[in-house]
Amino acid sequence: MRKRLRNITLTVLSVLAMCGIASCAMDDVTGELDEFKQAIRAKYDLKEQAFANNDPEPIMEQFYTEDAISSGPDGTTHFGIEELRHVYEEVIGANVRVESFHTHVNGNAGWDWVNFHVVPAEEGAEAFTFKMLFLWEKIDGEWWSKGEMYTMGAFE
Fold first, then answer.
1. Contact present, 115 and 124 (Cβ < 8 Å)
2. Cβ(33)–Cβ(105) under 8 Å?
3. pTM score of the predicted model
4. Which pLDDT tens digit goes with each residue over 21-80?
5. Which helix (H) or strand (E) holds 150?
6. Is-contact 99 115, C-beta < 8 A?
7. For residue 112, what is the domain's CATH number?
8. Longest CA pairwise span in the chain (Å)
9. 3-state secondary structure string, 95-149?
10. Alpha-carbon distance 6 to 24, whole Å?
11. Does a structural domain hold residue 94?
């Protein structure tokens, strides 16, 4: 009887320990996701402010990696920061707002599905929204966009 009681006690303690470990692991995942969301939100804020200031340089210097890739709704793809710079020089000045829709992170890689709302600077131009997927990599402790894909529409 005593041996059986000891085995039951050890089993219960093992289960409780595993539950505690699982809980801690879940806390780590939640914490990692929250930290990622906070870091990329700061990058989106930087991008929104750069548009408002009609200045693409903060985006070029602090948002994208040198080898970032961007692919749009018409299939046009831009490779690298210099090709992206030309695009931003044409579109900067619009009022933009980035709204995260679904975010995922695992270690040093993550992605974020967003609604990218645009109010063009041109008088009378209609506002529109892109569904976008930003790809992120953590490099030397900082999150950088490796690129994006986008199409017209909005997540609801």
1. no
2. yes
3. 0.80
4. 444 444 456 899 999 999 999 999 999 999 999 999 999 999 999 999 999 999 999 999
5. strand 142-152
6. yes
7. 3.10.450.50
8. 86
9. EEEEEEEEEEEECCEEEEEEEEEEECCCCCCCCEEEEEEEEEEEECCEEEEEEEE
10. 27
11. yes
